[in-house]
Structure formats: structure tokens, C-alpha cells
UniProtKB/TrEMBL annotation:
PANTHER family assigned: ACETYLORNITHINE AMINOTRANSFERASE, MITOCHONDRIAL (PTHR11986:SF79), AMINOTRANSFERASE CLASS III (PTHR11986)
InterPro entries linked to this entry: Aminotrans_3, Aminotrans_3_PPA_site, Class-III_PLP-dep_AT, PyrdxlP-dep_Trfase, PyrdxlP-dep_Trfase_major, PyrdxlP-dep_Trfase_small
Keywords assigned: Aminotransferase, Pyridoxal phosphate, Transferase
Similarity annotation: Belongs to the class-III pyridoxal-phosphate-dependent aminotransferase family.
Cofactor(s) for this UniProt protein: pyridoxal 5'-phosphate
Sections of the chain in a coiled coil: none
Keyword Ribosomal protein in record: no
Gene Ontology molecular function: identical protein binding; pyridoxal phosphate binding; transaminase activity
Organism of derivation: Cladophialophora chaetospira
Designated name of the protein: 4-aminobutyrate aminotransferase
Amino acid sequence: MSIRNLAEFGTRHVARGIGRLATEVIESGSGSYVTMASGRKFLDFTCGIGVANLGHCHPAVTKAAQTQAGKMVHAQVNIAFQRPYLELIEQLIPLMPDKSLDTFFFWNSGSEAVEAAVKLARHATKKQNVIVMQGSYHGRTFGTMAMTKSKTIYGENYGPLMPGVFAVPFPDCAHCSIAAHAGGKFSYEKCCMDPVTELELLLKRETAPSDTAAIFIEPVLGEGGYVPVPEGYLQRVREICDKNNILLVADEVQSGFGRTGKMFAIEHWGVRPDILVMAKGIANGFPLSGIVSRKELMDTQKPGSMGGTYAGNAVSCAAGIAVAKAFQEESILENVNARGKEMMDALKELKQKHGDMVHDVRGLGLMQAIEFKAGKGYGSKVQAKCMEKDMLILTTSIYDTLRFIPPLNISQEDMAKGLGIIKEAVEEVAQGAKPEETGTKGLAPE
């Protein structure tokens, strides 16, 4: 089938509900690059939305999967133990953000892992309700659609959804109404902590602590705009949970496995979660997700209440083992922090130069974003310019935001190349937005 026919075939026969950046057909990937069937080679700052954290086709991960496929592909978790599942746990226990997190359940996708956390929280506490954050993304299954608050499209016209879900504001200082009333100044370093007050009010007004099983939070808001929580917020939430016998669940599907410069983002704030949710980068592209909690909590569930046909697939677990070893052997976190600083410096420079376009830059490690001022569609224009220059980046959130998710082991040279493309794209969009070039003062071209 020709390249053109492949794209036309996909447009006709792949579900329309799947949105996509381009109609290109990806043929292969290697390291920080993907190659299309057309022959075009793109620098990939998307990583399959934060999945191929060690780059495409990491040699050690590929070899581990190939070796395991020759031994056992599917070893059903409800029948017997399988070696890769157990060895993966052995590799992960030392990497957990708290020693209490020692008992695991593996599933296939991030959404399934979030639902596993809901099941555990409800069963262990004998309470129904869960609290999530405005702007959060937890998945697109029926349970997680109710919990996702980043965009209405994920749950639009699919109701009724899972009941018992309540939402509170996330501490997003760039969009804080209090900061707006104070003249538009905001600071992640000196958050007003009004979201803590809103959480306390929610527990008094809508869902009593005696009815509330858990609070779910992404330490770095993902789909909501790559917003890290400000210092002090998670500590306050932990206090509220302890006081009211509520479980704190950290959804680290996107922020986990080195993405923020630590193995898990919650380590930046030194807070202990009761349940940690993981997926995406855990196996570098092989379908695998999981939850981890303390043994006494996990042991409240009866045998047979958890499981799944493909849960903890043997090949995926073998890939996960190789990923964990790569972090130890290849100085991945050191590279994340070095390259992350280079990216943040470059984004701050763009904000300083183009303050009329850029509202905010933020992030941790190699999970960073640039938010443009509303109303002109700058983000999509910059994204299109980057694609013209053979680079893939993604938008996110209801605000005009671009997110950057390069491989964690990206070279200094490829980072410089990517930042150069981003800078060129912003400059070109800025030139096109100048009113003197349109002949109409104060208006950008449509």
C-alpha cells in the first residue's frame, strides 16, 4: 500500500474519536527521533506522550523484551507467579518515594491503574467518595472520565458517569483569581494556599470526611498544563488526609519514572502518598501500569477481587526491569536535571523577550511548558512551525499551552537543536503577529 493510501486508509477506518497531530504514518523510531513512511525524520519532543522516556527502541529494553518473548509471552497473573513480575517488584522497591510503599499490583494502562487505586481506596476505607483537582487528567474509561477535569471533551455526552467524585481547585498560581485581583502578579514560591481552604470547605459542604475515601492529585498537573504544586501545598493536603482518615493518592502516570528529575515527582516535596499510581515510562512503550501501597492496605482486598487477563504481562515486566536498571546504570536523572536546566533557561529567555506573547513558563526536569497569552492561538501556530522544521511537540490544557516531553536521555546536542527550533518558531510567529505587518493596529492576522 502506498504512503498516501496508508493515510487515506487510516482516515477511513480508524475510529474518528481518536485525535491526532498529523496524518503522517510513523515507520520507525530510534533514540530522540521518529521516521515517517514518507522518509521525513522528526526530532520527537513528545515521547509518545511521555511513554518512551528512554527514547525509542532503547537497546537494553528491546533486548530484554526479545529475550522474554522467546521464553514466555503471557503468564496469567491469576494462575501463578511469573519471574519478570516478581523481579520488576524487586527492582522498583528501592526506587519508591517512601519505604511504606512495598506491595504492588500491575495492570495495563494508566486509566486502569487509577481505577485500581479507586477500588483499593474504597475497599480499604469502606467509604465511597473521591476528591480530584480541577484541571486533572486521570483517563478516559468510565470511572476515570468522571475524575478527569482537564477538558469537557473527555466526558461530553457519555454520562451518567461514576458518582461520588468531587473537585477542588488545583493551586495554579498563573490562573489564581486572588492574584488577578491583586493586579495579575503571581508567584509559585509564595502561593496564597487558597486551594487548601477550598479543600477544607469542600469537606464541610459537599463530601464529609466520613464519606471520603481518597484525594487524588498529580504532583505536576499533566493535561492541565504541566503545573507543579507550589511548596507547602502537598504537606497541607497530607495533614488534612491524616486528620480525616482519607487516603492520599499520587497519580504519577505522567510525572513518574524520572520525568521531573527525581524518580517520582512527589519526592520534590518529601510527602508520603498512601497509594502511588504509575504507568507510561515504566516499560518505555510496552503496555504496563501499576499501583503500589503499604501491605496492610493492599491486604484488605480478598483474593480474586483484583486481576485481569493481561495484567502484568511478562514481556512488559521484562521491559520494565530493563528500564529500572537503565536508570541506575546510565545516569538518567543527572541528564534530566542538566538538560532540564537548559530548557528552562531557554524558555525563560523567550518569556523575557516576548512578554507580549508569553504568559508563563513552568515545569520540573524534562516536563516543561510555555503558556501563551489567550486569544491569538500562538501555541498552535508555534506547534505548526515546529512541524515544518521537522520537530514534534504537543499542546495541552484549556489554556494556550505547549508542553515539552523529550526523552530523558536526550543528548546535549539534540536538546540544543530542539531549543533552537522552538526559538525560531516563536520568533516567526511573533513576527507574523506584529500589527504593522497587518496594517491594522493591535490585531494579529487571522
